[in-house]
From TrEMBL:
GO annotation, cellular component aspect: cytoplasm
Domain of life (superkingdom): Eukaryota
InterPro entries in the record: Glyas_Bleomycin-R_OHBP_Dase, Glyas_Fos-R_dOase_dom, Glyoxalase_1, Glyoxalase_1_CS, VOC_core
Pfam families on file: Glyoxalase
The VOC domain, residue ranges: 97-221, 227-351
UniProt enzyme class: lyase
Protein name from the UniProt record: Lactoylglutathione lyase
Residues that bind Zn(2+): E151, H169, E217
Recorded GO MF terms: lactoylglutathione lyase activity; metal ion binding
Length: 369
């Protein structure tokens, strides 16, 4: 049984140049705005006229030009570095939260029934868009403005999807794993791992599959405000992924565990402790650099205060922005979308808490089927 505790809501550097001369007598730097200005002469042009300066003079001008170019390059690099530092520092202060995860299913009613009757979720809302030939539904353990939820999308006539090898599972915290498994079996659900302690630990877990084959890990825990507690994805370079999610998305590395006997390492990353918020679980299997993403799992949505700064930070950290930041047609909400170094998609939304789930409907239905 899932017991839910109430959750509380929670230019670049511009350098201005002035005409200045240095006093030979005392080294003061002063402006001379009223002095007559001689015509501008290009040193590079003079350097080409060797007869004007002579070989030694021309060589001096060429050397000076190289130094000048190097100084300009260093200044530009310093400006870029400052801009990057400012963007990454802003990420740490941004107000972020994991909002929902999107994936596709072949029989929406059957999946809703499984989630509500076997996993204890609530159907929060459902909307059919016949002109676009799809229906979506949001389910979870509490209101969308304070809980992480799933968004299921059914595209008319598509009854099967390839989940691929990269997506791992969703995690759900329950108070009694064995009792939950018995209920799932009684409802005709598929159990792929019987209840028992996790290898090398004491936490009791089990694995089940929904009607489309998406795996759910049941974790035995006490009451929590966020039962839908994990999204697990596999990555090809764990250190690269950790750095990306820390810097580009401002997540915290909560835990890292290496399992050399079974040749894999897992990390937990998120915006709060594992027992009170949803976390992203990244798994690296030794020697496996790429995975098949399939076409079932879609993306995670994350709330942000500024999609423009978010997109800038993503680019700085090596992510690919697949939708440039900007407003959605006809509404005030702004979004940006990207893929991480492994190709996993994330969408960031700049929203007002009061209306963002109404806004998210428009966004998900219009752009990401």
């Amino acid at each position: 049984m899932v017991r839910v505790l109430p959750m509380t809501m929670t230019s670049s550097l511009h350098l201005a140049s002035v005409a200045a001369v240095r006093s030979v007598s005392n080294g003061r730097l002063f402006s001379a705005p009223n002095l007559p200005r001689p015509p501008l002469i290009s040193l590079r042009t003079i350097s080409q006229q060797e007869g004007f300066l002579g070989p030694r003079g021309s060589r001096f001008v060429r050397n000076f030009s190289s130094v000048e170019a190097g100084a300009a390059g260093n200044m530009a690099q310093a400006s870029i570095a400052l801009k990057q530092d400012e963007a990454l520092e802003w990420v740490k202060k941004d107000n972020r939260r994991m909002l929902h995860v999107v994936y596709r299913v072949g029989d929406l009613d059957k999946t809703i029934k499984f989630y509500t009757e076997c996993l204890g979720m609530k159907l929060l809302r459902k909307r059919d868009i016949p002109e676009e030939r799809y229906t979506n539904a949001f389910l979870g353990y509490g209101p969308e403005d304070s809980h992480f939820v799933v968004e299921l999308t059914y595209n008319y006539g598509v009854h099967q999807y390839d989940i691929g090898t990269g997506f791992g599972h969703f995690g759900i915290a329950v108070e009694d794993v064995a009792k939950t498994v018995d209920l799932i079996k009684a409802k005709g659900g598929k159990v792929t791992r019987e209840p028992g302690p996790v290898k090398g630990g004491e936490t009791v877990i089990a694995f089940v599959e929904d009607p489309d084959g998406y795996k759910f890990e049941l974790l035995e825990r006490g009451p929590t405000p966020e039962p839908l507690c994990q999204v697990m994805l596999r990555v090809g370079d764990l250190d690269r992924s950790i750095t990306f999610y820390e810097k580009a998305f401002g997540m915290e590395l909560l835990r890292k565990k290496d399992n050399p006997e079974n040749k894999y390492t897992v990390v937990m990353m998120g915006y709060g402790p594992e027992d009170k918020s949803t976390v992203l679980e990244l798994t690296y299997n030794y020697g496996v650099k790429e995975y098949n993403k399939g076409n079932g799992y879609a993306q995670i949505a994350i709330g942000t205060d500024d999609v423009y700064k978010t997109a800038e930070a993503i680019k700085i950290c090596g992510g690919q922005v697949t939708r440039e930041p900007g407003p959605l047609p006809g509404i005030n909400t702004k979004i940006t979308a990207c893929v991480d170094p492994d190709g996993w998609k994330t969408v960031s939304l700049n929203v007002i808490i009061i209306n963002f789930y109404l806004v998210c409907v428009a966004y998900t239905e219009t752009f990401w089927l």
